[in-house]
Design goal:
Blueprint lengths: L5 H12 L5 H12 L3 H13 L1 H11 L8 H5 L6 H13 L3 H11 L1 H16 L6 H14 L3 H13 L4 H10 L1 H4 L1 H15 L1
Helix pairs in contact: 1-2, 1-3, 1-9, 3-4, 3-9, 6-8, 7-8, 9-10, 11-13
């Protein structure tokens, strides 16, 4: 059985909603269950979905529960060749879909495509502290919360391609229903039914 991410999801929800008073306890629960440094790493990923200001707010609120940054944190922050590193991870995650998605992103905005590869993939998602399945399950939850359904479809496909079962994705939806709302859960469940048939 894949591990429950309930404590991670609770912190995601508090950050998304800007519930400052709930963040310290949620952060302490993440550190307790997932180990020192897990909260800081989760918050680093969440800026991709909720923006820098919200994460600065969360870092301030969670400060009492945060483990100190490590030397490894600084060493893994900037790969020598971020474009190449980002594209390599992107292609690993998207597999055959990468040849469709990358040109689409370039047509939308070449500058933004570079930021996605060099920052989101090379500097954030490539970080080793949280495993790939955990990062993808977090992405799926955040994308459902922000109703970014096209990106949600892409990331649920990535998660499934890399070993996250439909049963786990459905379990996660039940776990985040109070956060994202029943209507979004139903929309996601219907999409899973359609995409898995």
């Amino acid at each position: 059985m894949t591990a429950s991410l309930d404590t991670l999801f609770a912190l995601c929800a508090a950050v998304h909603r800007g519930e400052i008073e709930a963040m310290p306890a949620a952060a302490a629960a993440v550190e307790q269950e997932h180990g020192p440094g897990a909260t800081r790493e989760l918050l680093r990923q969440l800026h991709l979905y909720f923006g820098f200001p919200r994460i600065v707010q969360a870092l301030n609120a969670c400060a009492p529960a945060l483990a100190a940054p490590t030397a490894e944190d600084a060493a893994s922050a900037a790969p020598a060749q971020p474009r190449e590193a980002g594209e390599q991870l992107f292609r690993t995650l998207y597999a055959e879909d990468a040849d469709k998605v990358l040109p689409h992103l370039e047509r939308l905005d070449p500058c933004f495509q570079s930021w996605i590869l060099e920052h989101a993939y090379a500097r954030v998602l490539a970080r080793p502290r949280l495993d790939l399945a955990t990062k993808e399950r977090i992405a799926i939850a955040c994308l459902a919360a922000t109703r970014c359904w096209k990106q949600w479809e892409s990331h649920q496909a990535i998660a499934r391609r890399h070993g996250v079962s439909l049963a786990v994705l459905r379990q996660d939806l039940r776990a985040i229903e109070d956060w994202i709302g029943r209507a979004s859960v139903q929309q996601a469940e219907q999409a899973l039914d359609r995409l898995s048939s």
